Amino acid sequence: MLRSVPRDSAEIWSSFDPFCVDRQRAKTILRVMVRLKHRWLLFNIIYPNETSVIPFSTPSNNVTPKILTDILRQQISYNFGDQGSGLVSSSLQIKYFSAATSTGIVRIARDHFRIVWAALTFIKEIDGRECIVTVQRVSGTVKKAEQEILRRDKRALERVKSGKIGKKL
Predict the structure, then answer these.
(1) pTM, whole model, 2 decimals?
(2) Nearest-angstrom CA–CA distance, 153 and 148
(3) Domain housing 10
């Protein structure tokens, strides 16, 4: 016997009876109520450069979120195969990337964030330029990831202003 599944949450809660004998209907209702949960990975791209005053400081202006997404998908496919690609393909998204600071935020389903973390770590070259990608923070909300970016940038600015970094030896 097929029953229609309620559409809005008020209808779901009004129709849900904890003492319900119809277990299949209760399971269907609970399945509709589950929401997707994501993790936000804050990452930093470091470019080794011997000629700079500040080591690892010269950003690349050629890097875009589209290029990073393509490289990340290639790394996942190479390291984790078709299964890994299939697991992350629907939820992988680069929400923020700054070419000036080489900092970005990736959104991924909570169940598969470790795959993306590993793939980011395995990236060794972007646009023909050697690089190191490090994950700085894993967060449950984008707000906390953004706050971490601001906190790190403020700390770096204070170090430059105080003269602890950036002086020629």
Answers:
(1) 0.72
(2) 9
(3) 1-34
With 0-12 / 13-18 / 19 or more C-beta atoms within 10 angstroms meaning exposed / middle / buried, residue 75 is buried
CA angle 149, 97, 87 (to 5 degrees): 105
pLDDT tens digit sequence for 99-142:
888 899 999 999 999 999 999 999 999 988 888 999 999 999 99
Same domain for 44 and 30: no
Rg (C-alpha) for the chain, rounded Å, is: 22
d(CA 5, CA 28): 7
Structural domains counted in the chain = 2
DSSP conformation letters of 109-152: EGGGHHHHHHHHHH--EETTEE-EEEEEEEESSHHHHHHHHHHH
